[in-house]
Structure formats: C-alpha cells, structure tokens
Amino acid sequence: MNHIRHALLLITATALLTALALACSSDDPPSQPTTEAPAEQVQQAQQMDPPEQSQPSSPTSQSQEVQEQQAAGESTDVQQPEESQAQQSASSSSDDQETETTVSVPAEQTTQQAEDESDTQSDTDEMQQQEQPLEDAEQTAPSQPETDDEQQKPAAESVAEEDAEQDQQQSESSERERLQLRAAEIAARATVSDLVGINAWLNGEETTVALELAKGNVVLVDFWTYTCINCVRTLPFLTAWDEKYRDHGLVIIGVHTPEFEFEKRLDNVRAANAEHGVEYLVAIDNDYATWRAFQGRRGFWPRKFLIGPTADGSPMGVRYDHLGEGDYEETEVQIRAALEAVGKDLSNVPFGVDVAVPDRSDVARGVQTRELYGGWSRNVGGGGPYAGQEDYFLAGLGAEYLYRDVDPEDRLHNVWYLEGLWRAENQAIAHARTTEHLEDYMAMIVRARTVNVVLTVAEDGQPYDVYIQFNDDWVQPDFAGEHIQWDSQGRSFVRVNENDLFRLLFFEDFSEGELKLSSNSDQLRIFAFTFGSYIGGE
Fold it and tell me: Whole-angstrom Cα distance, residue 510 to residue 499?
C-alpha cells in the first residue's frame, strides 16, 4: 500500500512540475517587461554565468525519463531543482496523510517573478533617468534664432570681415612690394652707401636709407657712442628734432659704433637711450661696417649725414655733412630744406627747438685739456702718447709695473702719471693690486670747466669706489660733478656701479689744477678722460 501511495505522490509532483515549466516558458508571461534590457544589464548577467556550464534538460524530458526509469525499475537519482527535492522529501515523510496533500508554489517560480519585476522596475527607472536629462537639456538649451535671416546675418558679417582683412593684407603686401622695388631703384642710383652689417636695432624695426626715401622721407644718420661726451652733448638737439619733424618726414637713425668693447652690449646702449631720452631708431654697428662705408677707417664721433635727393639728380645722396658738435641752427636749416625738397609742407612748423645752445668760453680756446686715453692701443698708435712716464712704454702691453710718480712741478699738460702697481691693457690702464690707504693713484693737470672719466664695473659686477681730489683737497659741493658722493669723513668719491661716463668736476668758470684719482680696489680700469669748456654745458 505504501508503494502505491509513493507512486501516486511522485506522479502528482511530476505533473505539477510539468505544468509549472510550461507556464514559465509561455511566450507572453504577465510579468515580462516590454522593453529590451539595457546592454549593461545583459553584460552583467553574462558575466555572472559560470563558464562552460551545460544547459539543463527541460522539465518535460526529465519527467519522461523518470517514468521510463520507473518502468524499467532503475534508480531515479537525477539532479533536480532544490525546491522539487524539498517537496519530494516533504511528501515522502507524510506517510500518515494519504488523502491530504498540500502543494506550494515552487521557490524557483517566485524568484523568477521577483527578478522579472525587478528588471521591469530597473528598465522603467532607467527610461525615466534618460528622459530627465533630455528635459533638463531642453530647459537649459539657448534659444535658437527665430528666423533664418538672423542666423545668416552673423555669418555674413564674419565673411565680410574676413574679406576685408584679406583685402587689407593684399593691399599691404602690394604696397611693400612697390616700396621694395622703388628702394632698389633708388639704391641703384645712390651716391652714398646705405646701412650695412647692422648687428641689431633698438627703438624700432629694421630699415634702410633707400626704403625710407622710397616712402618719401629724408634721413639723418648720426654716428655716436654713449660714453663720448661730445656725442652726449648733441643728443638733446637730436631728440628735439625727432619730436618736432618726425611726423613731417624726418627719420633719424643713430648709428651706435662703439669706442670701447663694453659699449657693444645692448643693455648698456638701452640704458643710455633711456637716460638721454633717445626714442628714434638706433642701429648697432658693433663691427664698424656702416662706419667704414660712410667714413672709412678713420672716422669721428659725432658725425651727421643728412641724406635725400640731391641737386645732381641722385635720389639718394648726402645733402649735408657735419662733424662734431655745434652749428645746431645751421643743421636745422638743412633739415627743413631737405624736407621741403621732397614736398613736405612746413609752413605751420616754426623754426628752432627749445634747447639751450652751449657757449664755449673764449679763454678755453687752444688751452683746454685734450681727451686722454688709458689704453695701450691709443697710446702707441691713436693720437698718443697720453702716458707721461717713459716706464709705461718700457713695461709694455699686459705687464704689471710698479710706477713712481714724478715731482708735481715736473708734470706736463695733456698727459697722465701713475703711482703704484698698474697694468697696461689694450683699452685701459688697470690698477693691479688691492690696497688699504689709497696709496696708488693717477694724477694729471686739467684745464677745463668740466671733467669726466669713463670707468667700468668689476669683473664680477660688484661696485667699487674711486676717490677724487683736486689740488690735493677733496672735491667741494660748489664744483662737484653729478656723480660725486661723500663718505662719513668728508672724502669725495664716485661709486662705479655701471659701465659709463662719470661726471667728476663742474666749475662755474674755466679752471686749472691737479686732478688725482685713487682706489683700494684692484678692479679699477680707467679708459678715457674728456673735458669741456661750454658755459652752462657739460
């Protein structure tokens, strides 16, 4: 009897499992979502599947196998879902309940329905999340132009601007080509050299004399160097002419040809430009190429060449050549004549500039101290000798020599004398040792109203002091140059903190006396002395 019950229960369980399997595999289950699962979810499901897992047999085929095995009397040891095994175990244990059988919904079906509902909810949430950004984008998107005309208007304006810019560039290019061709024609018929071998340009872009003439301008070429006191005295007039006539066709080009090696440094020239207010073009002629083209091997600072069309028919020739300082009114007359010759209207431009013309003292003529150089090259072949002691020439270039000064009564004018250890260098005389009591010095007789000296900083860039005496006394404020300072003991000195021209003495009247320079530093190098006798000038 028990075997019959077990068989009936087994048949009933198999039938229920078959019905449930058919219900789960239905094409249109009530809880199946209507949208395709997102790819991310599909990928996650695939990743959760164990690798190389075989597909289980369908419930229907399993029940048939069970029936066949029962008929053949074989074992029914087949892996079934855990829910069915539990149910079978529960049914087998109910031997005393033959007529009452309780069948619950398998856990597999409940789990599948929960997963379906979860997937449906996830898909719905994702759709809502996708719709929300679209709504936000619609709310934050800028308003579109109302009409096609409004959309086309900015584009049309942009195209017009690009066309205008291209036209301007083409026009400028054509103008440059025209000027270059005209400059080449002018240069071919020129009777004076153009600028050549220029190392750098300050205060503007590179140019040529021929190109400026092609533009309808005239050119004033000024050869200068920033430590030359004669050049410095002319700078106020050049800057005034530049300011007055620049807009009327005058182009001033200062050709800076260095006298000393340190004057080749651009920073030094820039500093000099700033100090003297030079805003016109400055061409750096460190290799003397333009200097030689205009003046040959032996030229002068300062020297001015006014270039423009000349009476002989040349489109580029020297209209005026002036050497040295002075003659400022005459130079301005020539500038105005050259501008008017190229068609410039100066009828409303008054003559003259607001710069005081220095007046040289009559007593100075023929007796003012000449420019004195400290370097070997100038002493042996450039207008020297400037050294008053024979030992300087016996010692030779590069030699350090312990000099002994002459008796002050035996000093000659226009030369200098040394005391202590000094070294002859190509461009300077150098103090060759460190001292403590200013025992080494340079002395000379000076006749002038102003006295200046060219000095350089130490090799490591550090400043040092040079003490100045006049007639064996310290310099007094009433005749001190602008660079003179005084220490706590009342001693007068200049602090050498740049490579430049230093103003030592500035007398009210033409004066004569003994000048003495001394320093405890072994970095002192004396390049040159310059003197002046202008009333009210340097």
Answer: 28
